[in-house]
Amino acid sequence: MFHDLIVWIVATVSHWGYPGIVVLMFLESSFFPFPSEVVIPPAGYLAAQGEMSLPLVIGMGILGSLLGACFNYWLACTWGRPFFERYGRYLLISPQTLERADRFFARHGHISTFIGRLLPGIRQYISLPAGLARMNLLLFAIFTACGAGIWVVILALGGYLIGNNQQLISQYMHQALFALAALCGVILVFYLWRLKKRVKPAVETACAEETEKF
User: Fold this and answer.
1) Residue 112 within a domain
2) Taking CA atoms, which of 21, 44, 86, 129 is between 20 and 30 Å from 104?
3) Which residues have C-beta within 8 Å of that of residue 162, sequence separation ≥ 6?
């Protein structure tokens, strides 16, 4: 059954071309649980066969991911925010909780969005809390594109270099996910270190000012 799905994806991408990549990646990045692992590698394989361009495959994959993420952002911002503001108390979500989410995404939304786009099971849904918190849309789009771009490049190169061998691609994806998880850990540790380094002088300055008052 999975083999039949892959054959259908290859045929669909070959028939629809680059718009097909955008549509399928839009679905993968929005509310529809459509795995990107069965979209981009076949397109990379077609690029290796000379039927498509690898840079355009990557570009269309990023575009589709960005459009799907923005759609989720819009849904959460337009419908989710008013819903939680009105009925959140029945779900134990207070206005203060929403305010804390706003502050969190105002300060850390860029790194949260970027890392979230690299993690399976999270990449499709990180747009929802960003939309609820009304994160700056330009920053959201930039860091979504960056995170999605890394993932799309990995998938496209897998299909381009390995071909249409699903077993080898599956092994490649498994290794790539471990590498991405390690990368996310390094980025997070570095971010927290930089944050602590910035906060400490500010605290010391505030303490010095308070001491001078006495």
Assistant:
1) yes
2) 86
3) 41, 168, 169, 172
